[in-house]
Design goal:
single chain; 7 strands; methyltransferase activity; 44% helix; globular; alpha/beta
Length: 244
């Protein structure tokens, strides 16, 4: 059983079903989910991940190694990776439907992709130069298993970036974001996707998912170094950058 009291097999099916049900409006609705900030957060995540990798290696990009876009969905993060001259991007997602070309975001790479679970990555050890996961850490079944698996496939010195939603930090932004998430967002999502229940579920996953302060020690235990935790946009999101 996972932290929500469900077997992973049942939860995996539920997650896949929910995302596939809204896939045709997925990207538009995500913009509303984040108050229009999601793409800026992705650019920040990739830029700072690339900067950390360049600083560690002492070699400027372009990067010829393989990068992983974990929980890729329609390829929003992979699209930004290609803008930073990262040519070899493997898109991995639980759902084969979301990886289909007809749902691929314009500008996202159309080549390498695989339907797989993030804690069972079908790659050999030490084979990846960088890995990113955007807006999906809260859906994984086990932090230890997931982070350990990413550590396995990353080469020494490789960068790992996690980006996900948070509920706001401090006396100002915390109440503002919580009100938006709990009351405004489900109504807007229902108009956009005709599936407000799924977005109410998404809000619950943000509230109930692992907090960044609990992720940092798991990364350290798995051997990651130079762990940098940030809270962009008043804590509406969190960004963690770590080196293998």
């Amino acid at each position: 059983m996972d932290r929500l009291g469900m077997t992973w097999e049942k939860r995996r099916t539920d997650i896949q079903r929910r995302f596939e049900k809204i896939v045709d409006r997925y990207d538009v609705a995500n913009t509303f989910l984040s108050l229009g900030l999601d793409d800026g957060w992705r650019r920040l995540a990739v830029r700072e991940g690339v900067r950390a990798a360049e600083k560690r290696s002492g070699v400027p990009f372009p990067e010829e190694g393989l990068w992983l876009d974990l929980a890729s969905g329609t390829g929003a993060m992979a699209r930004i990776l290609t803008r930073f001259n990262i040519s070899r991007v493997l898109r991995l997602d639980l759902s084969p439907v979301l990886l289909q070309d007809r749902y691929r975001m314009r500008g996202a790479p159309s080549g390498m992709r695989v339907a797989a679970e993030t804690h069972r990555i079908p790659l050999p050890a030490n084979s990846v130069s960088g890995a990113l996961m955007g807006f999906a850490t809260r859906h994984i079944p086990s932090l230890d298993e997931y982070i350990g698996e990413v550590a396995r496939v990353l080469a020494p010195g490789a960068v790992f970036v996690l980006l996900d939603m948070d509920m706001g930090r401090g006396p100002l932004w915390g109440p503002v974001y919580r009100f938006y998430f709990r009351h405004i967002l489900p109504m807007m999502a229902a108009l956009l996707t005709r599936n407000g229940e799924t977005y109410r579920w998404m809000v619950r996953t943000v509230e109930e998912g692992p907090k960044p302060e609990t992720i940092v020690p798991v990364l350290a235990s798995a051997g990651f170094q130079n762990i940098d935790l940030r809270y962009p946009s008043g804590g509406a999101a969190y960004l963690i950058i770590a080196l293998r």
